[in-house]
Fold this protein.
Amino acid sequence: MPHDFRTHAEIIVNTNVKGEIFECNEGLSFWGGVDPKTGYIIDVHHPNHGNFLSKKFILMPTSRGSCSGSGVLLQLAQNGLAPAALIFHETEEILTLGAIVADQLFDKKVAILRLPKDIYSALAMADKAEIFENTLLFGSKKIKLRDLDTNTLNLNSKDQSILDGNHGAAQQIAMETICKMAAIQNAKELIDVTKGHIDGCILAHDANLIFAEKMYQLGASISIPTTINAISVNRNNWQSQGIKPDFGNKASRLADAYVKMGALPTYTCAPYLLEEIPKEHEVIGWSESNAVIYANSILGAKTQKHPDYFDLFVAMTGRAPKAGVYLSEERMPKYEISIDLPNKFDDSIWPMVGWLIGKFSPNKIPLVTGLEKTSLTGDDLKAICAAFGTTSAAPMLHINGHTPGNKLSSIQQMGKFLITHEHLVTLWKDFNNADINVDLVAIGSPHASLSECRNFLKFFNGKSCSPNVKTIITIGRDVLSQAKEEGILEELERTGIQVISDICWCSITEPIFPNNTSVIMTNSGKYAHYAHGLTGRKTRFGSLEDCAKAAQSGLAKSDLPSWLSNQSYSAK
């Protein structure tokens, strides 16, 4: 049996290194949270915003948020700005995978340790530490570190043949990494997956392109139906949109590398909006945090939150470690989050609810109660899942009365937290930290559904966008085709709204993102969280109707929405 890192100190990526100690008491998403060009924390919602991570021993319980954190760590390593070591006391996979890829493919080493809580707490009190010859040194302490043991995994004959190199170098690298991740997850065997979704196709930095092209050159080939996430350019039209040729060509090469390896050119961060979606209980291998959470929670499919790069390895082999939420017992909730719902509200409540659920259940699968008598649309559920993924590392949540299965049986054994009116007010103010003069309205993070496009158009009621406000909806190609057929696209464009496929707000760059923007208005909890770190601009947040009104007037609401007033609770 593999040893338990909760009782034994373990080193996963090994290197001799020393550095200062820096502790993050709260998990951090490296994507949208750390600038790969500088090594500074850029997530304005994180308590350590503005701190420098490079060359230090970074302690945090686990990471959180986007699957793309693995790519940010690889880019930091490529730039010589990575932490000297990343040290966790809970299970962590995203940054761990990034360090494994940096070591295995590029000989760039970032030490990864998993420590029992008592050793972790003692290390957090030190000023400096060193890793030398499998020993962690700090103060007067010498902690022997165990190497990761991959020999306990039961492989079938084909897995072993791939691992032995009989199917080519790329397949061997994929299987070697899968075996390492299986050992990290204490998996005893691998499991077949039927569908994949690739997330590492955004040109947020050159590391993603370097990795994809290297794997393609090594002969990588995808073996199961696999969709591809939103990319960094409108693939067929970027030349006419003012994109610089160097960036456009690199972004296209990155997308094309995955397509040449066998991925379908769907270019959407909402693959659950496609015609062919996973069935309940289907075992899949998806990446992209919002998609993973939606697949597990709403569709009832089964997938771990696979880090970027690992998603390709799973798609190449059709195999994944049989661990985590692939196991029915691991899908049970560990914590109850109850919502004190106001009597009246609009759709802006759901991104805030999702964000707060994740905030108060950062590492564990929660059971959400209090919404049993409320109707939730697919768009509402999408908003909850996407915002939840920005603040929680958990790959799913249960919403009692709305998601598959009855999870109330163990409710008495769980801790409980109540989300109140005060929490919603505080978050609304935090999301609305900008001047009310709006320059840009951003819809489609994740990609907008057809119903969101319909509703947004309805809120214009025949009016047009202000000439001083750029209004953009990002959607997948599938939804774009439906919008064309229904005539919605023509109406949106006549109103002054720009509709763009392939890219989303997490990947938009100038000049499609207007360079004269000071204030962004969005209905997305995910983008309200990440926008400042990604763009340097401040945000206003509100409902889809609020966004439509801001697009027409150039002004956001300056005060709380009426449903957030105390009166909306008074009739309870």
About this structure: The CA atoms of residues 44 and 533 lie 7 Å apart. The first helix runs from residue 69 to 78. The mean pLDDT is 93. The two ends are 54 Å apart (CA to CA).
